Amino acid sequence: MKKTSKTKDIVLFSFLTLIIILIILAMYQRDREWTKLTAMERSLSEQSRDVSNLRGSLNAMEKKLESLKVQSLSTSVANSNESSEKTPVSGGVSLAFKRAKAATQQADYAQGDWSVNALGSNIKTITPLVSSDATASDIQGYVLEGLITRDPDTLEWTGLIAKDWNISDDGLVITFNLRNDVYFSDGEPLDSSDVVFSFNFIMNEKIQAPRHRAYLEKIKTVTTDGPYKVTFTFKEPYFEAFSLAGSLEVMPEHFYKEYLEKPEVFNESKGFLIGSGPYQLADPKSWTPENGNVELVRNTRYWGDVQPSYDRILWRVIQNASARLTTYRNGDVDTYSARPIEYEKLKEDKQIMSKSQQFEYMPPVVGYSYIGWNQERKGEATLFADKRVRQAMTYLIDRDRVNKDIFLGYAETAISPFSPRSKQHDPSLKPREYNIEKGKALLKEAGFEDRDNNGVLENEEGKPFEFELTYFQGNEDTQRMILLLKDMYAKAGVKLIPTPQEWPVMIELLDKKDFEAITLGWTSGLETDIFQMFHGSQAKTNGDNFINYKNPELDKLIDEARKTVDSDKRMPIWQKAEAVMYEDQPYSFLFRRKTLAFVDKRISNLKLTKLGLNKSRLPLEVYVPKNMQKYTQ
Q1: pLDDT score for 80
Q2: pTM for the complete prediction?
Q3: How far is 419 from 11, CA to CA, in rounded Å?
């Protein structure tokens, strides 16, 4: 009887298990069907808009043709003896697309294939405004567009979404006339109301965009005068007013406006991304960090004068440097940014060199690495609130040795946020040399000395001088540098405690200002506005002055420089600001590093410009010839 009962229990259990599995499978199938149905509905809706837009365009063309016929009849006699106007060399496209157009005229030009890139760390979010790292910004750059773009040959601004503009004599009012043929990737037309919305959305305090608000606060209003005319009015003169207004990335109002009612959803989102650019997320709300990789597909509705070459652009997360090199060697990613120690060996690697285009250069807009000294943590002053301590910390770094041992000379010592080749830089300022005695003397002035002859500096209460240095654990060169720094500081009696972190954790620590010291890097531009990083007003939650640095003298100089439109008058002000930072050492500025890159030979039309390598420049100028393509749709 017990055996029979046990058998019945097993059968019953198996039956129930089967029912549960069938229910789960049914739910999964229903979810898939619902997802497909949602995608189909979105696709049908977008196709309906496309048909409507096409019908409108055809009607407009018919009216234009009728108008041209009338004009032709009235002027045919007068023009019969005149030669026709020559077609522009760029093929009739706008200036922004002339380089991309020239690429399409090459004999081996072809569309198709993928651009595949490697990421050394996971991304926390790619939602615009919410994200704060350079990689997310790069990804968004393929999706979102501004009104203007910079010509990499002349460095002049040219129209992109804007076809022309007007600037008032006092520089306070800038009016852009927009193209009337620009569409977002879902088929909705882009007009001036989207530009106005984008500004107002950013300036809404409920939206987590303090970094963007920091720059845009110079703008008083953004208003529309008809569907294709938008006006920016500034509160006061600003030296980058035109680039600030023209570079505002246009976010579609119809997509993002719902988050004005539920800003917390937007602020916590991971992948709400849609724009008018040449690429798009397959689903503008689909991406999450759990996806790992980021994949953009061609925007088949792209409005541009030249269509993008790649079918897809993919970023693969490969955290291990050796694995990234192996992946490049096997042809599974297109680019490998080499560490200096690798670069020397790879130049002699026949297999690598046979498949690669090699680039070694100092980018014109190269950024800088630094150690940031947090001056206030959890409401209390830190060791680094005293500028003598910060100066000492710089004197105790042998940057020449770090450059020689870690970067093999492929770097230059940074003096300030300003490039040594920029007019912002005062050439009389030289990098602080390594000087252990001067460093120890400054620390003694600040109250730290070896009071018990144990080789460690202590304050008057006997507390040893020690601090945690937070850094990204995925960068091997940074790890090696930290070990060197630890040894250098130890020679002066200072204990450095290495604190490696994953990238998402580092971003969180920055937002909360919850660290003692941190090593990172900033990107730069042709002229660097330091308001975001060093102005005292930006020492706030989620602001980029995350070291809580405040100096009223520097604030005044930054404010003065920003409102000085005349370049010849502005540069001496920046140099005075640089002198203040040189004295204060809010950061220990470390290095500007050369780019040491290998790019697969299948990528054609690679060129160095005044803005750097054109591999990812938009509109896209690079492509893969048909006989070298390896990915299909």
Answers
A1: 27
A2: 0.81
A3: 77
